[in-house]
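Last lecture ended with a question: if I hand you only a sequence, what can you say about the shape of the protein? Today we answer it with a concrete record. The protein is Annexin. Below, first the input exactly as provided, then the predicted structure, then a couple of comments.
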Amino acid sequence: MKGFGTDEKAIIQVLTRRSNEQRLRIAFEFKTLYGKSKPTVVPVNPFDPREDAAVLRKAMKGFGTDEKAIIQVLTRRSNEQRLRIAFEFKTLYGKDLVSDLKSETSGKFEDLLVALMTPLPQFYAKELHDATAGIGTDEDVLIEVMCTMSNHEIHVIKQAYTASDLRVPLLEDDLRGDTSGNFKRLMTSLCMVSTFLDNN
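The predicted structure:
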């Protein structure tokens, strides 16, 4: 990537022939050498999903909504922890947390909360669909999702993509139809390698 032009073939060969762990190690070394990185979310510890569910219930009960309390809980938990909170919320109060969040919020804030509460495979499937839908392609989203996931994770995302209520074709078909050249080869390779490895 240094100097004039980019050796896309070399990038494709390196990224598609490494495991996710190896790609993450490469990213770490790249950051160490060149100062670029990718943010991560770390699960909170100690974690009490029942207590978090109670805080959210209190924040949405009665007149008005305590948006600050909702933000404090949901933005400081990993996706897995947020899903456990939703389970406890349903168990304790017999209500769907996402439905309550939707009824108590609106606009971009509502969109953000719904995204935070979406299981990761479904979230990434929707992001990939939105990146290839309509005119133009959001290649940054394709790179962020396809190049940072393990082969197994891509396989699970592909299943969520096909099973979604968006009535879409296979992920690899959308990637082939919305990309071209070496970028198309990279996306298709990442998609197909996950299928090959998961079938063996």
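Comments.
1. The chain has two domains: 8-40+119-198, 49-116.
2. Residues 49-116 form a domain with the Annexin V; domain 1 fold (CATH 1.10.220.10).
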